[in-house]
Design a protein that fits this description.
The structure is a single chain. By secondary structure, the protein is of the alpha/beta class. It is about 45% helix and about 15% strand. Helix 5 packs parallel to helix 6 and helix 8 crosses helix 11. It is globular.
């Protein structure tokens, strides 16, 4: 026999409600993100429909689980979920999954020359991940570090725009768009990069930052959402203002110019990831 129903996000809402009432069981709902947050508002009928279903799932649930203080406040504000219905359960990682063996011969040279500083970003290429902000910041970084290379890993609907944006900025030759990479390659980049950057505009938790910390990566993130709860500025990474290329450029330049301090942040990030 089942004792409860646990639904994740709006796509499961109809099945969850049917099971809740049909089996007379308590319903738990985990909300990983909201349509309102992903789009910074609701701008068309599809977005309004999805948001309505998200609200309905929260209403039907006996408990609503979220992953960060930021998301708890968003659910209270957007859906008016009562405080006594909300439960916060942060995400976590297994640090041992983010170790990396010695890089195969020539791995780094496939993406950046030996004398180039390598900046790395990985994630879905969608608007809310803010890769366009990183491109604009990197254009400023190149003025001081012309021998720098930005590696952008991942796929998504924003990819053609990012290619065009890099061309418009005149930096396309300094960007390496890898497409999809596997976990082993990602871990190698975490260990080899001079900076790992996550410039999200909206991030309910930011598990990518926790993964990078577990790998001991030199980390720069936006202060958006849950990212700001994971990274302590100057201790285990750096934070820049979300959506602000100038702020990202300043922090990235500082990271590249102070490798000795960055090395200390990398060690503390690795230790902090074991506790978060």
């Amino acid at each position: 026999r089942f004792t409860l129903v646990h639904a994740h996000d709006w796509v499961t809402a109809y099945a969850a409600k049917a099971l809740k009432h049909g089996l007379d069981l308590p319903l738990f709902a985990t909300v990983h993100a909201t349509e309102w947050g992903r789009n910074n508002g609701l701008h068309n009928d599809l977005q309004r429909y999805i948001s309505d279903v998200e609200w309905w799932l929260c209403y039907e649930a006996w408990r609503v689980i979220c992953c960060s203080h930021y998301m708890r406040e968003e659910l209270r504000r957007v859906f008016q979920v009562p405080e006594d219905k909300l439960r916060l359960i942060p995400n976590g990682v297994y640090p041992e999954e983010f170790t990396a063996p010695p890089a195969p011969p020539g791995f780094r040279q496939r993406y950046a020359a030996p004398d180039e500083r390598m900046v790395f970003h990985v994630g879905r290429l969608v608007r809310e991940k803010g890769a366009d902000v990183l491109l604009e910041a990197f254009a400023q970084v190149l003025e001081r570090f012309p021998r720098a290379k930005l590696v952008v890993a991942g796929r998504g609907p924003h990819e053609p725009f990012l290619h065009d944006h890099a061309r418009r900025l005149g930096i396309y030759g300094r960007i390496y768009f890898t497409g999809y990479i596997d976990d082993a390659a990602r871990n190698l980049f975490y260990h080899l990069a001079d900076a790992v950057v996550f410039p999200s505009l909206y991030e309910p938790f930011g598990i990518v930052a926790l993964e990078a910390m577990a790998a001991g990566a030199p980390l720069l993130v936006s202060d958006a959402g849950g990212l700001g709860e994971i990274v302590i500025h100057g201790r285990n990474g750096l934070k820049a203002r979300a959506g602000d290329p100038v702020s990202f450029a300043e922090n990235l330049l500082w990271m590249l110019e102070h490798p000795e301090h960055t090395a200390g942040m990398r060690e503390r990030a690795r230790e902090d990831a074991k506790c978060l």
